[in-house]
User: Fold this.
Amino acid sequence: MSNVLFTNVRILDGSGALPTPGSVLVQGNRIRSVGRSAAAVPSAGAIVIDGAGATLMPGMCEAHTHFSWNDAATLAGIQSMPLEEHVLWCAKVARRYLEAGFTSCVGAACAKPRLDVVTRNAINSGQIPGPRYLAASQEITVPGGLGDETLPHLPFPEFSFGVNVNSADEMRKAVRMFLKYGVDTIKLNLSGDNFTPDSPADTTWMSDAEVAAAMDEVRVRKKRGTAHARSAASVKQALRHGIDVIYHASYTDEESLDMLEAAKDRVFVAPGIAILYAMLHEAEAFGITHAKAVAMGYQHEWDAAIESLRAMHRRGIRVLPGGDYGFAFTPHCQNARDLEFFVKYLGMTPMEAIRSTTLYGGQIMMKGHELGVVKEGYLADLLLVDGDPLANLSILRDPKRLLAVMKDGEFAKMPEIESERAWGRAA
Amino acid sequence: MADVQFTNARIFDGSGDLPFTGDVLVQGNRIARVTRTGHGARSLPVQGATTVDAAGAFLMPGMVEAHTHFSWNDQPSLDAIQRMPPEEHILWCAEVAKRYLDMGWTSCVGAAAAKPRLDVVIRNAINDGTIVGPRYLAASQEITVPGGLGDTTQPHLPQPEFAFGAVVSGSEEMRRCVRMFVKYGVDTLKINLSGESITGMASEMSQFTQAEIVTCVEEAKAWGKRVAAHARSTWSIKQCVNLGIEVIYHASFTDSETLDLLEAHKKEHFIAPGLAWLINTSHHASEWGLTPEVTRKMGYHRELEAAVESMKALRRRDVRILPGGDYGFAWTPHGTNAKDLEYFVKYVGMSTMEALLSATAWGGPMMRMGKGQLGHVREGYLADLLLIDGDPLADITVLQDKARILAVMKDGAFHRKPPVRAARTTRWAA
Assistant:
């Protein structure tokens, strides 16, 4: 690994501070120095990247990632992909996330038991390129809840998108199995979802005894619990049981907001609002007209979610981007769109939106002391962006504007060399 | 895909002629023009093509590996290969596929996979661009009999998932097995006709009944598939010729009748002996407990001698002998496959020219893509090309060195681009 010096860049350090012109030296996998002036820096044998005024910022973090969702329109469509193809799909998506500027992703459930674990291990061993990754279990659910895709005449567990448990003992066994496989997080579907009309978003399905058994095992092995929690009751249930990563949190009441605020130093909320928006406005090609989406409850949930999330943002609760990309109507790698939604609907400033994917990203990856900010000694996860994301967040989802992606000191996407475009010399 | 013009290359075109200096123009995925230059001759300039100054490097057709096992995972036993879970196994296959292409093998003929769908899935993923890899023909698992090569079940662990191969007994089980693999989408049915000394059943032995073999071939042909056989024993080689099994792997033990048969049908068969396995098992596997004494007792030294004699005889009779085979064990790691060309020169007595042709001109038809597609640097052929630093005709071992393989092009696109000399230290971002 050679050293790299970025000169003549606008450093957007991800902490919330305003950008400054300067240069950044990467040695090995870490940021060695950050120069905050336009003065020339000795390159000392490093590869020099002249940024020509481009923005250098931390790699982004996706807080709710499903590599194994395969851009199908239904859960059954995801589940019917055979195992071998599914693994290769995950590997391909992992590479695409990295190239799209997501140098970290928090796995939020996978579609077959070992997909996330195997993908994470393959990334870490260097076998495939991909972001830093925390591997999740399948969704754990109860019969009839979100993720139970078995049919009456096809009751086989392999048909099910999630793992069905029914009682604290069964929960314990399922959680232990996933911990044996090596997951970083256990995903519990506490609430329903309007995607599955028989178990809508404002319903809450799991018993406290089941959740307690799961979190008991999680704590024994020092892992993390995450929750699909759309209903107010499920948000409170998650907090009661010490689940720190709360997905969706669409419906809140005063009590749940107070509980979230009280736990704001440890809690992360990743609402995944893109899917709500897409179902309402962009899913017609897949048979879900606006009227149908409204009938499914999506307008009601959208209105509630915007209000809840605005309140959370006001109370200083960390709200992070990412979530439920990987459906036909929310294809993978458009994830940075969440930042635009945050500004447009939640009242964040562009700087706050950036911070939600950089500073907070490092924290949700459990590496807040060394990841998510352009700072001396921090891990060298960096993006070189053609343009100013603070002026226009949408450039972050334009591959042409992402000039370079570096993860752990190595380029996942190299800046193009002018001279290589037309001419190569063999020997 | 930008057009590419290679200039100033030593062109080995696969015809058997000595290389000449010239230019090759690639347009789209095909070779559009091959021009001799030198002595004042020059090719016409082309507009819009990326020019690669080969600076005298050796330009040759991409190589064809005739007996490939992506799913063998560089382990010392069949059982150890089989124990890899399917998720890891498919990623392994994808990694190995890329490694073959890195090393200049732009085409590979699958010769059996360790789990039912590994080869098929890898071929499809290569073809749809999910992963990078050579052109690939997907094989079934090895079809074998209880107790034969590939049956790694144990008395107390009889589950088929424990078996390396697909174990059948009787014609109807064979038929069902072939149909299952055809349903999965294989190009080739692999059948283990003979034993394999390391498994306890000697290589001279033949394990299937003729009726079972006939069913296999009949069923495969009904679906338009190809059959390839693990055939070390004399009887099994004859079965291949008599029943029309096109691809004969190993062919170690021959008698004059077998040689005559093969010679009489030489246009209908390809032989890939996989000498690397015999040579390295006999002499270079001590680290894994297979000392020369052990492997001599197993019979591998005798088999190596017999195989070398058979290949010499087949070469004299102009039977096509192709490189590749059984790379993917601990002592024959993936990526070292070009050693086969060295073995052909050293053991079989081929000239370096013949060895090079075996990997190119003879490999082309092995890929079954029709006439005029693969194996030559010639106008209209698919642009599978290698640029080599050095002359394999003078030193066949340069093909084993990744650093000497300057560039690999498959289907008109660079898999490995030639290194660019300028601008190594400064990159302009915008």
